[in-house]
Amino acid sequence: MRIAEARVVVTCPDRNFVTLKLVTDDGLTGVGDATLNGRELAVAAYLNEHVLPVLIGRDAARIEDTWQFLYRGAYWRRGPVTMTAIAAVDTALWDIKGKAAGLPVYQLLGGRCRDGVTVYGHANAETVDDVLAEVGRYVDMGYRAVRVQTGIPGLASTYGVSGDKMFYEPADAALPSENVWSTPAYLNHVPTVFERVRAEFGPGLALLHDVHHRLTPIEAARLGRSLEPYALTWMEDPVPAELQEGFRLIRRHTTTPIAVGEVFNSIWDCQQLISEQLIDYVRTTVVHAGGISHLRRIFDLAALYHVRSGSHGATDLSPVCMAAALHVDLSIPNFGLQEYMRHTPATDAVFPHSYRFADGYLHPGEEPGLGVDIDEDLAAQYPYRPAQLPVNRLVDGTMHNW
Ligand code: KDG
Ligand code: MG
Fold first, then answer.
1. Nearest ligand to the C-alpha of residue 260?
2. DSSP structural state of residue 351
3. Which of 63, 126, 149, 232 could form a disulfide with 93 if both were Cys (CB 3.0 to 4.6 A apart)?
4. pLDDT at residue 3 in the model
């Protein structure tokens, strides 16, 4: 079973996606997501120029050896572009292995550890009144966990608040748009939002919030403490995580659980956060953390330290990544939550998939492999459109984290 063909498909069914498709000499196909929001063509070029030529003729069954070849063999290790490219190859090879075995990938990973994958949705609105209605909509759809983001009084736009309530797309312009940020306004407002949401929906609903890397550790400590009465499931990315020892300071001051890691690419990025028990959920996912093989390693390390998974699942991670994530989520002992931002009908049509939402859970389905594919003819009807993520400035014009 050798890799006979490998191609990269770039398509824009409402947003850009990069997909790797592998075909074996006995006719099996496998797909892997290679989308890096706002940097799509960098990964496509890395795959086309440096990875595809070495894949042709390789034994498709040797998933781990291929991973090691691409990781160690590049000499230049890690980084989002490299690891996303490796992830795509790894994911496609797991898809092929599942099809060759006639089994869904979660069976190859050890079988089910649970009946379904609990997901959280995104309730967002400019005002608190409107966000209450949005949370109610998610509860009515069956969600057991909801992320809550609102506008901040005095700020023209805020991360996580979108016009279209089901499909959030922050990469909104060919050149980065500029947002303005005020930490004092934010810190004052957020607890008032959760006070109302908790009062309205009671203690049973899991509530989450994404800070999106905007605070310092002491500011995050204050936020975490002020949210304690509302018992959040997690406060996400409170600070940028380059300085991991900074999380010790947050931990000293608050019991609000912390989730970090959607921008991490490898086990080395989260080793300290996990082994010092500085976080409660690790948000690494298939596409940006080296594929199914490497993500499982991260989650196994996390399991030793009471850290659970909470994989990133925003709209810019394609249905191929979502399908792969569900097979991992179903099979690991320390699953926590899976983010599930729905894709648009155009995206769903380009990526036919067997996963289904029911009663607050996603189920990957029983098809051999990952249960997802790319319709290449349809994909060709949606050419790439340049789109970048916004940047963020403080009120005085200083560059800040977006
Ligand atoms: O591409 C960036 C988005 O995926 C990110 O902003 C979404 O933070 C995010 C989340 O938690 O879904
Ligand atoms: Mg996030």
1. 2
2. S
3. 63
4. 98
Q: Are 320 and 292 in contact (CB under 8 A)?
A: no
Query: Given this model, what pLDDT does residue 169 score?
Result: 86
Distance, in Å, from the CA atom of 358 to the CA atom of 238, rounded to the nearest integer, reads 31
Give the pLDDT band of residue 162 (cuts 50, 70, 90): confident
pLDDT digits (tens, 9 = 90+) for 215-228: 999 999 999 999 99
Active-site residue set? 159, 212
**In Å, how far are 107, 246, 247, 301 from 276, measured between CA atoms?**
32, 12, 10, 12
Could you tell me whether strands 17-24 and 3-11 are parallel, antiparallel, or unpaired per DSSP bridges?
Answer: antiparallel
Q: How far apart are CA 120 and CA 131, in angstroms?
A: 15
**CA 227 – CA 93 distance, rounded (Å):** 43
Please tell me whether residue 64 adopts helix, strand or coil conformation: helix
Compute the distance between CA of residue 397 and CA of residue 391 in angstroms, rounded to an integer. 11
Q: Are 384 and 11 in contact (CB under 8 A)?
A: yes
Q: In residues, how long is the chain?
A: 402
Distance, first Cα to last Cα, the chain = 45
Split at pLDDT 50, 70, 90, the class of 108 is very high
> Over the stretch 143-155, which tens digit does the pLDDT of each residue have?
999 999 999 999 9
Residue 168 pLDDT? 83
For each of the domains in the chain, give its residue range(s) and CATH number, in order of start: 3-107 (3.30.390.10), 110-366 (3.20.20.120)
Supply the angle between the helices 246-253 and 217-227 in degrees, to the nearest 10: 30
Q: If you average pLDDT over every residue of the chain, what do you get?
A: 97
Ligand 1 lining (C-beta closer than 6 Å): 37, 170, 210, 212, 262, 312, 314, 316, 339, 389
Please give the Cα distance from 123 to 146 (Å, whole number): 6
Beta strands in 69-216 (DSSP E): 117-125, 145-150, 178-181, 206-210
Q: Which residues of 253-292 are buried (b: 16+ CB within 10 A; e: fewer)?
A: ebebbbbbbbbbbbbebbeebbeeebbbbbbbbbbbbbbb
Q: Facing residues of 394 across strands?
A: 181
Please classify residue 150 by burial: count the beta carbons closer than 10 Å to its beta carbon, then call 0-12 exposed, 13-18 middle and 19+ buried: buried
pLDDT in tens, 313-327: 999 999 999 999 999
Mutate to test the pocket of ligand 1, among 36, 210, 318 (most ligand atoms within 8 A of CB): 210
Q: Which atom of ligand 1 is nearest to the CA of 210?
A: 11
**Residue 31 structure tokens:** 């797909």
